[in-house]
Design goal:
Layout: H1 10-35, H2 45-69, H3 74-95, H4 101-134, H5 138-142
Length: 156
């Protein structure tokens, strides 16, 4: 009877780990929201921001390289770049002082968010091109990318 609930596949273990991780993150977020001070003086503030910007630069250069070389890794570079740009926009706006708030919102809305959306569009287009190039199954090729199965279907 105990074997009935055993995790049989790597997929089952992955799904379980992701759900448990999400649950732990929910608990941690609630705890932080309750316990963190509203005001905090951060040490190495400059290093944190410069480090984020350097990571953005490296990922954008990686995206440019992958696009130039027509490599599928462009998808990963573009999604990671978009994620960091959205993160940068979020922290720019939420940590801005009263005098800097408007500028942060404008830069976020005019530069960071549109750039992130463009990178996500590039990643989606590259993913579609990858599928169209490598999948011979016409049914898979006509599917939206979000519905293409990760593993081959079994004909059982």
């Amino acid at each position: 009877m105990a074997r009935r609930f055993a995790l049989r596949t790597t997929r089952d273990r992955l799904l379980s780990a992701l759900v448990v991780g999400a649950f732990i993150e929910i608990l941690w977020t609630i705890y932080l929201g309750w316990r963190l001070p509203r005001h905090y003086v951060a040490h190495h503030w400059d290093l944190a921001w410069v480090g984020l910007d350097v990571a953005e630069i490296l990922l954008l250069l990686g995206s440019a390289w992958a696009a130039w070389r027509r490599r599928a890794i462009l998808i990963l570079f573009a999604v990671a770049s978009a994620t960091l740009l959205l993160l940068d926009a979020w922290f720019d706006v939420t940590t801005a002082g009263h005098g800097d708030f408007r500028v942060s919102v404008v830069v976020s809305l005019l530069v960071e968010v549109p750039s992130a959306l463009a990178l996500l569009w590039i990643a989606r287009r590259a993913t579609r091109r990858l599928f169209m190039t490598h999948f011979r199954d016409d049914e898979l090729r006509s599917m939206p990318v979000r519905k293409v199965p990760l593993t081959p279907r079994s004909d059982s």
